[in-house]
Amino acid sequence: MKAIVTGHTRGLGQAMASALLGRGIPVLGLARSACPELTEQFPELFQQATVDLADPDALQRWLDGNVLDSYLAGATSVQLVNNAGTLGPVAPLGRQESDALVQAVNLNITAPLLLSDALARKYQGQLRIAHISSGAGRSAFAGWSIYGATKAALDHHARCAAADCVSRLRICSIAPGVIDTDMQATIRRTSAEDFPLLERFLALKHQGELTSPADAAERMVSHLLSEEFGKEAVADLRSLPTA
Ligand SMILES: NC(=O)c1ccc[n+]([C@@H]2O[C@H](COP(=O)([O-])OP(=O)(O)OC[C@H]3O[C@@H](n4cnc5c(N)ncnc54)[C@H](OP(=O)(O)O)[C@@H]3O)[C@@H](O)[C@H]2O)c1
Fold first, then answer.
1. Segments forming the whole domain that contains residue 42
2. Which CATH number covers residue 20?
3. Phi/psi at 81 (5° precision)
4. Residue 92 maps to a domain
5. Structurally, how many domains does the chain consist of?
6. Hey, how many other C-beta atoms are within 10 angstroms of the C-beta on 227?
7. How far is the CA of 167 from the centre of ligand 1 (A)?
8. How far apart are CA 149 and CA 85, in angstroms?
9. What gap in Å lies between CA 171 and CA 42, rounded to an integer?
10. At what angle do helices 213-224 and 11-22 cross, to 10 degrees?
């Protein structure tokens, strides 16, 4: 197997890349910056490419280049993890910054959909696609209409792609739980006026109730590699049987 992980430079993405590499699975990371720690730790198995996934033209140019084709050569199976994501503008309608809104839709929806389609075209073997979703796509939170809508789109993309019944393809959109990453720090910096649930998220951090990226990644990767993966098109990491 070879894996492709977007947003591998920090947070959950870095931890998932590390967990895959630790199992001897090669990883190609895609993000705007690089991750020197993974290069240092796994010089033989890890490679990375710099691409702004919020820019669909830049992503398409990268897909049209030869990095991905070279990487896929000789793979016995491929795992794509669409992990890179952003909260986007946190505000009610009428107060959402338009550039941030477009960037969030491009990064959270357009990039995973383009990557999924390109891989299914370029790679004809067994393909597993995981979208990293969120509970925010399944419950309505004030202030998070953009973030919630983008994650709900990933869930429905997985349901419809699963309905295509392509036998070599397994796909699942998975909510990972609440994880102690930069994204949570960003959430804690939003204003209570824009995000009425702010106190709840401050308390989760204060009470030590956030999952560590390493723990979430271990569980996630065990699931990605398991026979159970893709049996349901939409899942929550917290309610999966422990692998
Ligand atoms: N943390 C949570 O509690 C939580 C809960 C539910 C769901 N999730 C989901 O889990 C995923 C990972 O979240 P996280 O908390 O680990 O986020 P994070 O710490 O903010 O990391 C985001 C990653 O995405 C990459 N990224 C951001 N913008 C990008 C762009 N324009 N192009 C390419 N890469 C980009 C970043 O790399 P560069 O900056 O180097 O580009 C970074 O590696 C996201 O999809 C998020 O929605 C997180």
1. 2-177+213-236
2. 3.40.50.720
3. -115, 105
4. yes
5. 1
6. 8
7. 30
8. 13
9. 27
10. 50
The order of strands in the sheet holding 77-82 is 46-50, 27-31, 2-6, 77-82, 126-132, 169-175, 234-236
The whole-number pLDDT of residue 241 equals 77
Closest among 13, 9, 10 to 176, alpha carbons compared: 13
Question: Ligand 1: which of 5, 32, 184 to mutate, judged by most atoms within 8 Å of the beta carbon?
Answer: 32
Note the pTM of the prediction, 2 decimals. Answer: 0.98
Closest-lying ligand 1 atom to the alpha carbon of residue 54: 31
| For the chain, counts of helices (H) and of strands (E) | 10, 7
Sites in the chain below the pLDDT cut of 50? none
In angstroms, rounded to a whole number, what is the distance separating the alpha carbons of residues 125 and 169? 8
Extract the tokens encoding 78: 């491929």
Residue 138 within a domain: yes
**pLDDT number for residue 242:** 60
- In a domain, residue 207? The reply is no
Ligand 1 neighbours, Cβ below 6 Å, are 7-13, 31-33, 52-54, 83-86, 107, 132, 134, 176, 178-179, 181-184
Residues, the chain, total? 243
**Taking the CA atoms of the chain, what radius of gyration do you get in angstroms?**
17
Q: DSSP states of 187-211 as a string?
A: HHTS-TTT-TTHHHHHHHHHTT-SB
Burial class for 37, CB neighbours closer than 10 Å (0-12, 13-18, 19+): middle
The CA-atom distances, in angstroms, between 224 and each of 3, 92, 217, 227 are 11, 35, 10, 8
Residue 79 CA to residue 116 CA, distance in Å, equals 10
